[in-house]
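Support case: NDP complex. Customer-provided input:
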Amino acid sequence: HKQVVLAANPKGMVKETDFRVEETETELVVQPGSNDVAVKLLYISLDPYYRELMAEEDVLGFGLYQIGQPMWGGVVGEVVMSENAEFKTGDIVLGHLKFSEYVIVPKGQGLQKVDASQAPPSYYLGVLGMPGFTAWVGLKLIGKPKNGEQVFVTAAAGAVGQIVGQLAKVYGCRVVGSAGSDEKVKLLKSEFGFDDAINYKEEKDLSASLSKHFPEGIDIYFDNVGGETLDAVFKKVNLNARIALCGAISQYNLLEEERYGMKNLFYAVPKCIQMEGFVVSKFMGEHMQEYVKEMSGYVKEGKVKYKEHVTKGLDQFPGAFVGLMTGQNVGKSVIYV
Ligand code: NDP
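Agent response - structure generated as follows:
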C-alpha cells in the first residue's frame, strides 16, 4: 500500500517535490491478543499547520515531520481488523494517523468512534471537527459577539472561514469575508449568507477596501492570514474590538526575512483592542462536546451549510496540499483516499 512521506523541508513556498508518495512494504498484521486495530483510511484532512510541521523549527510543539518518514495528521477511516474490544470491523473512526492507505494503531490509542449515521464521515474533519470547532472558539469564546456587531473574517471560503461567517450570522452580526477569487466571493454571498465579500486580489488597497465595506468599523476580526491584512485591520477597528489570532497563512510560505513587519500595531492601545492567539487543541477537552451538539443542530436545521473540496487518491496529496497553500481549494480540503 501507499504512503505520503516528507521528501524535503520546504524553502519558502511549499512545492510538490517536498513530498513523495511511495509504496511501503509494511505488513498489515494484527497479532491476536495485542489490542491493536487496523484502519483503512477513507479521508485525509488537509490542514495548513502541516506546513509548519514540514519546517525545521517546531513552532507548534507538536513534533516535526522527518525527511523520508511518513507524514501524519487528521484522518477518518474504517476499522478493517481489530483485536480491541472497543472497536469492531466496520466502525468509522477519527484519529491522527500516518498518511498511509492502511495503518495499524497500537492498542487503538487515540482513535475515536464517530457516528456515520449522523453525518458523512468527512464532516468529522470539517464542520463537526477541528476546523469548525476552531471557528467557534475564535468567534464565540474570543470574539464574544454581540447582536449587531461588525465581523470581518479572512480566508473566508475555506474550512474555518465558511463556518466563522455563518456562525456570525447565527449570532446576529453583520459579516464580511475576504477571499481570493470572484468564485469564492460569490459563494460567500449566495451560499453562506455573508452580508458582503471582498476579493482581496482585486481590491489591492486594503485600507480603502475596509473603509468601503465597513462604514461602521470592525468590532471583531477573525484573522486567518496575518501580515498586511491584519496590519490594515488595526486602523479600522472600533473601540474595544476583539481580534482572534487564528492563523497567518500569508506568512507560512515565506522565508523569515520576507515576513511582513507590522506598522499599525500601536493602534491597539488607544482602541483598547483585546487580541488573543489560540491553538484549538487546548479547548477540546472542555468545549468540543458542546460545540458538536450546537453545530449538529445548525447543520440539521440548514442554518449552516458546508462545502468541501475533495481530491481523489492518495497520489494527489502533493498537488492538493500545494493547492491549499495557494488558494485552489474552495471549501474544506480533503483527500478521498
Ligand atoms: P483554508 O481552507 O482556509 O485554506 C487556506 C486558504 O488560505 C486558501 O484557500 C487561500 O484562500 C488562503 N490563502 C493562502 N495564501 C494566502 C495569502 N497569502 N493571503 C491570504 N490568504 C491566503 O484553511 P483552513 O480553514 O484549514 O485554515 C485557515 C487558517 O486557520 C490558517 O491560517 C490555519 O493555519 C488556521 N488554523 C488555526 C487553528 C488554530 O488552532 N489556531 C486550527 C485550524 C486552522 P484565498 O483564495 O482566499 O486566498
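The chain has two domains: 2-125+308-336, 130-277.

Case will auto-close in a few days if no follow-up is received.
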